[in-house]
């Protein structure tokens, strides 16, 4: 039997982490990848032409949706090169500096506001204008996968375009899905909406940020394939046995602060619930730091182990910057200076050598003898291009 690439049956996955305005970092990486694909296959190709699954959480969900949602011609709504322009134009309105300053000043005076930092109106208006009434089933070029969390039912809800095509009650509007996965606690209000079928049945959703369940949605993306395989659905490659040898997975982080001894057992033992949620004047949120950092690293380690176990680690590329500090480490600082710094971080990340997490230390370490991330992306682009050509030929 021929190998999967020769059959044109590699499962291809793109996953983008959550992280607010730090979406500028993966936005920079994705623009580089799409430019390399266009060099190979022409200026009209888009990332959705190459990936069977595009997944994203929170800001990553917004990026994933823009890459996969169709325009009037049935092509992706925007090119990857437009992602950063989107953040540069709308970021300062979504993350209003005046709202942020007013909120944290009130907290510092122990006069705790009754509302989130931002009212979310700008984001809701923006997604409505951008996506209009498009629904998940309108996404046809790829399977869009977006994790959220239902605060009423206290369980994760994963939206996918494949599910939407088989169940009307899962066919949510893309704008609602984006607002649901982006509703980060403290920062934005929860997002409520309903779906209805032709018989009048209703399903309700009370959603908060998908990062509560999957800040790094790579594992959710891969599992969505197994779910479809079990249900015997079409629209994805028919692979009898799927492991790391038959997958191409690109996982993009939005950056994190470097490993540091920020807290200690002695320190946290004296904390109240307020201390766990908020540390002034740095505006740290220790509880969220702990949950987000731990779950993201666990996902990366789990997936890397799967690929290494079948000697296919070259099929899994995780690009993450773990040297953020100051404003760049925060998710809602949308000043002109900070957004420029985040783009610069993305560009410098391309020049760094491929890194992998050291599970003993919890740190990302450059791999001796590996190429730069940019060179690894070029290789990844070539493999994606070859896969697409084989599919088109067959």
UniProtKB/TrEMBL annotation:
A motif (GXSXG) lies at residues 56-60. A motif (DGA/G) lies at residues 209-211. Its EC number is 3.1.1.-. The keyword Lipid metabolism applies. InterPro entries: Acyl_Trfase/lysoPLipase, PNPLA_dom. It comes from the Eukaryota. SUPFAM superfamilies: FabD/lysophospholipase-like. A motif (GXGXXG) lies at residues 18-23. Residues 14-222 form the PNPLA domain. The active site is at 58 (nucleophile), 209 (proton acceptor). Belongs to the patatin family. Lipolytic acyl hydrolase (LAH). This is Patatin. It comes from Hibiscus sabdariffa.
């Amino acid at each position: 039997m021929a190998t999967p690439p020769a059959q044109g049956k590699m499962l291809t996955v793109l996953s983008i982490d959550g992280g607010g305005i730090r979406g500028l970092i993966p936005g920079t990486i994705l623009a580089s990848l799409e430019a390399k694909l266009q060099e190979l296959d022409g200026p009209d190709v888009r990332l959705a032409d190459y990936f069977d699954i595009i997944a994203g959480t929170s800001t990553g969900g917004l990026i994933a949706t823009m890459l996969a949602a169709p325009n009037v011609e049935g092509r992706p709504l925007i090119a990857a090169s437009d992602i950063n322009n989107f953040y540069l134009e709308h970021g300062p309105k979504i993350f209003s500096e005046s709202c942020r300053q007013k909120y944290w000043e009130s907290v510092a005076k122990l006069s705790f506001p009754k509302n989130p930092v931002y009212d979310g109106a700008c984001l809701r208006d923006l997604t409505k204008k951008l996506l209009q009434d498009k629904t998940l089933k309108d996404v046809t070029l790829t399977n869009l996968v977006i994790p959220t969390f239902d605060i009423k039912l206290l369980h994760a809800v994963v939206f996918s375009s494949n599910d939407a095509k088989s169940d009307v009650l899962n066919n949510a509007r893309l704008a609602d899905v984006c607002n649901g996965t982006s509703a980060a606690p403290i920062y934005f209000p929860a997002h409520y909406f309903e779906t209805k079928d032709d018989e009048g049945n209703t399903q309700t959703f009370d959603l908060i940020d998908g990062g509560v369940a999957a800040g790094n949605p790579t594992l959710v993306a891969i599992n969505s394939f197994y779910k479809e395989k079990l249900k015997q659905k079409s629209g994805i490659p028919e692979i009898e046995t799927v492991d790391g040898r038959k997958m191409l997975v690109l996982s993009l982080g939005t950056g994190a602060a470097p490993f540091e001894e920020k807290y200690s057992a002695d320190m946290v033992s004296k904390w109240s619930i307020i201390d766990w949620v908020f540390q002034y004047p740095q505006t740290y949120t220790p509880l969220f730091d702990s949950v987000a950092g731990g779950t993201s690293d666990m996902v990366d380690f789990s997936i890397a182990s799967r690929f290494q176990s079948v000697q296919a680690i070259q099929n899994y590329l995780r690009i993450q910057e773990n040297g953020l500090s100051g404003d760049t480490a925060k998710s809602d600082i949308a000043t002109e200076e900070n957004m420029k710094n985040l783009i610069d971080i993305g560009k410098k990340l391309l020049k760094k050598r491929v890194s992998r997490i050291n599970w003993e230390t919890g740190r990302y370490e450059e791999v001796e003898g590996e190429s730069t991330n940019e060179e690894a992306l070029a290789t990844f682009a070539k493999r994606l291009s070859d896969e697409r050509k084989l599919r088109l030929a067959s």
